[in-house]
Design a protein that fits this description.
mainly alpha, Arp2/3 complex 21 kDa subunit ARPC3, globular
Amino acid sequence: MLQLNPSQNRQIYFLIACSCLFTAGLLSSNFLASKVICVCGLEMPSATVGYALTYLMTDVIGELYGRKVANRIVQFGFICLIVACVLTRLALLLPSPYDSSAFSQVFSTSTRIFIASIVAYIISQSTDVYIFHKIRNYSPRFKFIRNNVSTIISQFLDTIIFSFIAFYGVVPNIWSMVLGVFIAKVVLALCDTPFFYLLTRNRIDCQEI
């Protein structure tokens, strides 16, 4: 059995915890998207808050464990997203002896929205990791710059890609919706900065896994 010292155990446990939070934010955002909430006059899907957690976690993981590990988390998240969507579709198709209309109403999503979420996820998350580490290599001192710039740019891409694939030709004023959602995401990105500093305050001296 492989023996690890206490420092290595902490590294592994912290990575597992961050990965679990990333996955929780990713999967919950797909189930919460149907409810629209209003915060400070801005309308947005309730999934916006949960999805913002994924960017915070990839930034934390990238800061402590390196770009390769952050990219792996994004790739594993993509697989989890596909599996969760397939299992949800299967649950909807399987017959039930009871009235399952409420279940179908909550968990049914169109193929267009499903494709939109998949494409927006893989492009925006990969971009977030790329920009974060480009800025980190150029200017390693100011963590808030790479945290906020990478998240805001990737969130903009996510909003544009998802909105146009999912709602182009359906929503009358799609740019208004994009602007409202993006402003909300920028505010959330700025709000997660203290948490980024808190979670990365103790530099973990480890090699990329």
